[in-house]
Amino acid sequence: MKKILTALLALAMLVGVAGLATAQAKKVTVWCWDPNFNGYSMKEAAKVYNAAHPDVTIEVVDFPNSDGVAGKVQAGLQAGGAGLPDIALFQDFQIEQFITSYPGVFADLKAAGVDYSQFASYKVGPMTEGGKVYGIPFDTGSTGLYLRADYLKQAGLNPDSYLKNLTWKDIVALGKIVKAKINKPLIAYDTSGWEFLRMIVQSAGGQFFKPDGSLDLNTPATKAGIQVLKDLNDAGILGMTEGWGNWVSAFNNGDSAGLVSAIWIIGTLKSQPTNAGKWIVLPTPLLNGVAGAQNASNWGGSSWYVFDKSKNKAGAIDFLKSTWASKDPAALGFYNTILKGAGAMGTYLPSRSGSNYVAKDDFFYKSQAVYADFAKWMEKVPALRYTANYTVLGSALTPALSKLFKGELKTPEEVIADAQTGYKQAVSQ
Amino acid sequence: MSQKGNFAKYLNRMGWLFIAPALTLFTVFMLYPIVSSLYLVTRKWKGSTDSFIGLGNFVRMANDSVFWHALGTNFFLMVVQIPIMVVLAMVLAVVLDQGIRRFRGAFRLMIFLPCITSLVAYSVLFRILLQTNGLANNLMIGSGLISQPIAWLNDPFWANMTVIVAMTWRWTGYNMIFFLVGLQSIDREIYEAAEVDGAGKLYQFFRITLPLLVPVILFSVVTSTSGTLQLFDEPNVLTNGGGPANATMTAALYIYRQAFVINTDFGYATAMSYVVVVIAAIFAWVQIRLLGGERK
Amino acid sequence: MSMVTPRSVPRFFLWVGLIVWAFLSVFPFFWMAIGTTLNPNDVVKGILIPGNDFLSNVDKATKNYNLPLLFFNSLFIATMTVLFGVTVNALAAYGFEKFPSKVREGFFGVLLLTLIMPQIAIVLPLFREIAFFGLLDSSAAIILPFLMSAFVIFFLRQNFKMFPTEIIEAGRIDGAGEFSIFWKLAFPAMKASFASAAILMFISQWNSFLWPLMTILTDANKTLPIAMSSMMSAYTVEYGGLMVIICVSLLPVLVLFVTMQKQFVAGLMGSLK
User: How many domains, in total, are found in chain A?
Assistant: First the structure.
């Protein structure tokens, strides 16, 4: 009797453990920031997946900003992988640093069967290493120049006449008129970063790093880009703000007449309902005098990555493939939903057939069909090589640009020289 | 006399027992991490790989102008902010203790209130208040104090002023309480005797109060110095990771950025941390020597 | 040397100075409270008249964050830290002060040195250690490393200096054990000091951000500062909702301090001799 009981007990425990194991195998943990944009999008994807796989739990955990997630991931990696999720969100400019610093930490999704020809090519670049591709591209950072049509009118201009491909020289002229007539800077500028310059250089197909990874700032695109910033600043067209929150206030409260940003700022614009009907979106201005320049660029954007040693790697990959990289109508429907729900435009090319992609948006001046515009511009975005030292470069260029605005540095060459010194010191030798 | 010896042994054992829990926690959660991080000092770290580089980190530190600039920012903040705050705290305490009788509790509560805020929360508040078009500038322009908005967060000089203003707001009440307590322990009879001798209030302050408050001043200065040397949250949140042209980059903030944001060089970051510790220790030692006191 | 000035004039300036500083100290709290009722853009503009958005702000604050749960987590962690921490630190302070020995003084010195250690340097080794113990994503991970506080031990030790050794010796003659003496004689006499230590430890743990961020892995175990920081760094900052969370997070500390103000100040008395 005792033996039977013991055997039964052992069997029960075995089943229990097996049950636990399968229960664990049916959970996918995702780390991201901003619950209203990234978290929301992932949860919508989870809904679609759960319709077909109700037994899988997808847990989306929110942490403060991309540095918070990156910091936690680093701590976990330093502790031998303790506490890491299955999937984490990373900004596109961060990822090359992780891939270089932690080889083999992410799962090769190309080998897992993801068809990357269906994603915008400029997003796939940063996540590629040799023959391996690591992530699932998420949102596009397709940029545009947002302007307040009502301010343009106040300055005696016709907004519709600007709705075309312009150059930065045109914008400087426009800004001068607006400043003279209504005394507002045309473009709100966040001094805590250097993304504006990067955006200009990227729009011209420029690079900051040579293919071998070494820094090269002496390029026509970079010099011309710095000159544009100088011209804008000298004409008083840049509304200087420090930090994200203050930058947002500047354009939402009307201190500045516009901003250059990506499609994902639309949610933020809509958070100020009194501005409904006032915003017009122009194509990204073209950089004068540089061959290969486009009226399109990118700002931000992140992608999802699966950890190679995660508990439920197979489950995570299946989830991502079925929702984010699938031509299944339910999957495409999810892309359509998040576009309207959060202004999140994915970079999965087949999803552009969604109804929201061509819909007009009443929040914008004359109900401009902004998403169609951004989708169109997204096709022309030149690819940028971020490299592992992208953040280091930023830490050197941002102070140099500050000095340019203060007048301590006077020419693009001086700014470049200053940044190169700063870069040499900060980069890990 | 073995009985005395036994008693001494017993006392000694008791002493160890009392400090045992704290010492265990200290060894496990403080000493071990510190010792294990010491080994990082001689290593060059890049993500998941590290290699021995001897004193390489220190050589790099010597040439790292951002690090020295950051330390310079710490010193600047120390030299400007601490005297202002300590003097202010002392004056407020003296006024509350000797000058004003009514509503003392209410004033004390109000002035201490800033100290209960979290560092992150109050930095965010000040960030919003001190925007170029924010409330602070608007009030000052409206009341005619200034004609142009001050670029609190955009200008390198004013960014440092912002940090100083924020820190003073946050910590003056805390130090004021210490001064209040110190004042309460001064015998009133000394003042009465001085009054009888014809000494005025100011004389009383400088000749009686001030010398008796030296231990409190020392405590205040030493704790504030070590706090300022470790300053991290305010520059990070208030001025977004270092301020315009790295104007408000402090040592702790730079260390964090080297470890987590710019590079993943934990070896270098740890080496810098220990340099900061040594500097802080020197400062504390100098201050204790100068201002005297029985503190170890 | 005597100052011959009418007493009323300098008194007036004293009052003005005091009121100005008290006002400056309190104003941001007032602005925050009003902010909970305004829409996000008005908060930033600095409007000081209450608006109508309180309920919608509360909704925004609770939409993505289970505020009651986070509040409870923070409260639980801070309370446990205080209960166990004050005990551990008080025992240690008593041990250092009333059982002097050269070796223990050495340890005390080492303890004080750790006060100047930047937290960043030990974050990673400590994280690895906590992971090794299997304590990630638990309140123990947040509580344990912060139970022992060199500052509190130093502070309590200064207070214990005032506790007469004669009482201890009298207790020994009566045959009481050392811990009994501590609990029955020292503790009741030093209640104010313990109250001060409790308040200091509570405030510190209640507001702590970096370490909980590192060790918490799931929504259910988060603390209030994490939610606060998350709101602050979103693409669209809901300032009104943020004000709500900040106010909620201030309340317990405020209540604690207001009710224990007297003990707090009295407790600090001893630490400065």
Answer: 2
As for how many domains chain B has, the answer is 1
Look up the ipTM and state it.
Answer: 0.85
Closest residue of chain C to A274, computed from CA coordinates? C41
CB–CB of A373/A146 below 8 Å?
A: no
CATH of the domain at C99: 1.10.3720.10
Q: Is residue A215 part of a domain?
A: yes
Q: Has residue B153 been placed in a domain?
A: yes
A288 and A218 in a common domain: yes
Report the candidate in A118, A89, A122 with the shortest Cα–Cα distance to residue A385: A122
Same domain, A322 and A272: no
Indicate whether A390 and A274 sit together in one domain: yes
> What residues make up the domain containing C90?
8-272
Does A190 lie in the same domain as A43? no
**pLDDT tens digit string along C84-105?**
999 999 999 999 988 988 999 8
Asked if the C-beta of A80 comes within 8 angstroms of chain B's C-beta atoms, the answer is no
**Domain carrying residue A343:** 24-140+300-353
- What are the tens digits of pLDDT across the range A361-392? 999 999 999 999 999 999 899 999 999 899 88
- Give the mutation candidate from B4, B19, B40, B274 for the C interface (greatest C CB count, under 10 A): B19
Closest Cα to residue C120, out of C197, C213, C56?
C213
> In angstroms, rounded to a whole number, what is the distance separating the alpha carbons of residues C250 and C253?
6
Residues in chain B with CB shorter than 8 Å from the CB of A95 are none
Query: Between vectors from CA C267 to CA C265 and to CA C272, what angle results, nearest 5°?
Result: 90
Instruction: Tell whether A83 lies on the interface with C, counting CB pairs under 8 A.
Output: yes
Nearest chain B residue to A98 by CA distance is B47
Which two structure tokens, joined as six digits, stand for A51?
A: 């319709």
DSSP per residue, B168-222: HHHHHHHHHHHHHHHHHTS-HHHHHHHHHTT--HHHHIIIIIHHHTHHHHHHHHH
Residue numbers in A near B132 (CB within 8 A)? 240-241, 246
pLDDT in tens, chain B (296 residues): 567 788 888 888 889 999 999 999 999 999 999 888 888 888 888 777 778 888 888 988 888 888 999 999 999 999 999 999 999 999 898 888 877 777 888 888 899 889 988 887 888 888 888 887 788 888 888 888 888 888 888 788 888 999 999 999 999 998 998 888 888 777 788 888 888 887 777 778 888 888 888 888 888 888 888 889 888 888 888 877 777 778 889 998 898 888 888 878 888 888 999 898 888 888 888 887 887 654 43
With contacts defined as CB-CB under 8 Å, which chain C residues touch B214?
Answer: none
CB distance from C131 to chain B under 8 Å?
no
Window 200-259 of A: residues touching C by CB (8 A cutoff) are: 244-245, 248-249, 252-253
Which CATH number characterizes residue A274's domain? Answer: 3.40.190.10
CB contacts, 8 Å: A427 with chain B: 263
How many domains, in total, are found in chain C? 1
Does B209 fall in a domain?
no
Three-state SS for A304?
strand
Rounded CA gap, A277 and A208, in Å?
38
From chain A, the residues in CB contact with B123 under 8 A are none
Domain span at residue B233 reads 65-184+215-291
Domain membership of residue A10 (yes or no) is no
User: Which residue of chain A comes nearest to C136, CA vs CA?
Assistant: A83
CATH code, domain with B151: 1.10.3720.10
Domain shared by A87 and A108, yes or no: yes
Cα B150 to Cα B137: distance, rounded to the nearest angstrom: 7
Cβ contact B262–A426 (<8 Å)? yes
Q: Which residue among B18, B169, B296 sits closest to C25, beta carbon to beta carbon? A: B169
Contacts of A15 (CB under 8 A, 6+ apart): none
Partner residue opposite A272 with nearest CB, options C41, C213, C219: C41
